[in-house]
Amino acid sequence: MSSTLHVFVVSPDTRSERRFDLHITIGQLKSKLELFTGIPASSQLISVLNSDDDPTVVVQLSDDSKALGFYSLRDWQVLKVDDLNPSASFTGQLTDVSQVEKFELSDDAYAERKDSVLAYKQQHKVGRFAPKIDEVREASPAVDIAIGSRCEVESSEPGLSKRGTVRFIGETKFASGVWVGVEYDEPLGRNNGSVQGNVYFTCRPNYGVFVKPDKVKIGDFPELDLDLDEM
C-alpha cells in the first residue's frame, strides 16, 4: 500500500488538494497545515470527513504524537481544519464576501468547464461518479492465490525482501477491488489485520498489510533472518 495520502484540506479561508506522508505525526501535520491555512498549530482542530460529498465526521486527529497512518485514512477524504481561537488569527475575515458583487455561473456553463471540481470527479470517478459496489465486484478479476500460501511482497526499497503468509483474499470496505492480506514474518506491516475497525484476519500489530494481487509473488519462500536493528 502507498505511504502517501491524497486528501482535500478545507479551512475557513482555504481549500486545496494535498499529499502527506503517512509516517509524519499529527503534530508535524499541523505545522504543515499552518503554512497554507494560516491557523496556528496550537489552535487547530482537525476533523476527517468521509468524502467531499459526505460531510460525516469519521475521526478527529487529536493526538499530536500519533502518526498520520495510525488513523487508517484513505485517499480523497477531507481534512477539515477549524480554528479554536479565531479572534487571535483573524480566521474567516479573508472569506467575508458580503461586500463583494456576487458572480453566478449557470449549471450548464459550469458543466462544460474542464477545470472544475465536477470535471475532476467525473474523470477520476469520485463521489457520486464512483462505480457502484456491484459494478466493482463484476470488474474484479479472479485471483489465483490460496490462503496459507507463502509469498514475497514487492518492495520499493532495494534489497529488502518482505516475506510472509497469505491470510486474506477478497474485497474490503476500505477500498474497492480485490486485496490480499499478508502476515509478514517480521514487523514490516501497517496493522494487525484490521482496518477502520473491520477485522479481515488477525496477527500481531505491525505484522499485517493489505496489497494488490499483482504485488504478491507466491512461492517457496522460507523465513529470512532479518536484523531489524540494522535496517
Summarize the structure.
With 231 residues, this protein is of the alpha+beta class. It has five helices and twelve strands. A five-stranded mixed sheet has the order 2-1-5-3-4, covered by helices on one side. A five-stranded antiparallel sheet has the order 11-8-7-6-12, with no helix packed on it. It has a two-stranded antiparallel ribbon with strand order 9-10.
CATH superfamily of the domain at 4-95: Phosphatidylinositol 3-kinase Catalytic Subunit, Chain A, domain 1
Strand line-up in the sheet with most strands: 2-1-5-3-4
Described by the principal axes of the CA atoms, the overall outline is: globular
Second rung of CATH, namely the architecture of the domain at 4-95: Roll
Overall strand count: 12
Distance between the termini: 20 Å
Main sheet summary? 5 strands, mixed
